[in-house]
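Task: sequence in, structure out. Protein: UPF0173 metal-dependent hydrolase TGAM_0425.
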Amino acid sequence: MVKVKFLGHAAFLIEGSKKILIDPFLSGNPQAAVKPEEVEADLILVTHAHGDHIGDAVEIAKRTGAKIVAMYDIANYISEQGNVEVIGMNYGPTEIDGVGIVQVPAWHSSSDGKYGIGNPCGYIVKLDGKTIYHAGDTFVFLDMGLFAELYGPIDVALLPIGGHFTMGPREAAKAVELLKPKKVVPMHYNTWPPISADPEEFKKLVGDKAEVVILKPGESLEL
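Result:
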């Protein structure tokens, strides 16, 4: 069994034979379901260098010994922040400690608040026979159809719906049409006023294309 736990905003913990933490923005996150010191991980995946995604990655890695996976340029940046094991990669597939990982494009920006660092990405994770797609921050784009063709079927897609910086509900519903996931979990909404969105509106727009599972921070989905 693989469990996908929503930690708030865009942070998720995937638990199976390995614990995979994605975009661990917990300190300063008004939605955070846990504190950084309460999380265990084997791998930490970072989608881009914005503070609400890179978050507490370094601190958690130092404490747990987790390996951080990120875009090559961002990995180099992270390695300068502390004594942690960082694996830099670029768009494409790899396997790390028995976990299949595909780093895929995302349409967004990436910086530490001052300098542009690397390119944004999403991740397709294959763990214990399940496939999870975390879109990172992105707008919808037709290549999402290739993700479904090459790496599907996708068991669950984790998609931003907050608008302003990412897709809104309408665009995310189109992404579902392209990705063809069995289930979809909305994320990256209602953390702050600019990204206010109604997940029920998203669910209505998706219709019967996929099962929409609306998780509150701290809740989990079992695959």
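The chain has a mean pLDDT of 97.
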